[in-house]
Amino acid sequence: MSDKHTLFIADLHLAADRPDITAAFLRFLRQQAVQADALYILGDLFEVWIGDDNPEPLLDTVATALATLSTQVPVYFIHGNRDFILRQAYASRAGMQLLPQQQVIDLYGTPTLIMHGDSLCTLDIAYQKFRKWWNQPWWQWLLLKTPLSYRQSLAAKARRKSAAHKARYKQQQQPQIMDVTPDEVPRVMAEAGVLKLIHGHTHRPAVHQLEVNGNAAQRYVLGDWYSQSSYLQVSADNWQLHFDTLT
What we know:
Elements: E1 6-9, H1 19-31, E2 38-41, H2 57-70, E3 75-77, H3 88-94, E4 96-98, E5 102-107, E6 110-115, H4 125-134, H5 137-145, H6 148-171, H7 184-192, E7 196-199, E8 206-212, E9 215-221, E10 228-234, E11 239-245
Parallel strand pairs: 1-2, 2-3, 3-4, 6-7, 7-9
Antiparallel strand pairs: 1-10, 5-6, 8-9, 10-11
Helix pairs in contact: 1-2, 2-3
């Protein structure tokens, strides 16, 4: 088996009130990521992002650790729904290369589509309307022009609404609405011309078998880091989801 491999993570939701997650992430960078050919972060690295001008010490800690890693290993970042206004200023501090919302990469000879994954949840109509709104460049530009205190209060309000949104679907016994739409996955994969997809967002780590234009295909879902650290390790001959206990 080849020692060359690439790592993928998503949905860490780093926050000052969860130092255990931050500690696990810093340990992951020092122990696992430093041995990889590349590290891809597929969104929601932070629980909330209110702007590159946020003085929160956690941001400096993470940027320093990622910048150190990037001197040895390329680090790529795709925005999630929690950190969609992360800009080049912070990416440069952290040594990260920003990628578009969907990107096809060559993984040891296998064309693979990578994304955060929220765009696949098309049955969640309320969320998709909101997503379309905040994806507008002009709206993001205006938001970042507001005072930091306003953005902090807006983020807190958005987190409360998100929690209520999830609870409502759970109460209605419709959690599938917040998962990917089965028909959307093969459509997007066919459009990209791939048989492999890696994404996060749903917090439901698994490997799904499906068909794309009559061909066998796979969808790899990354896990969140709320109760464990989770990553996908890909080499030329092995694709493996890993889970480590938070300590």
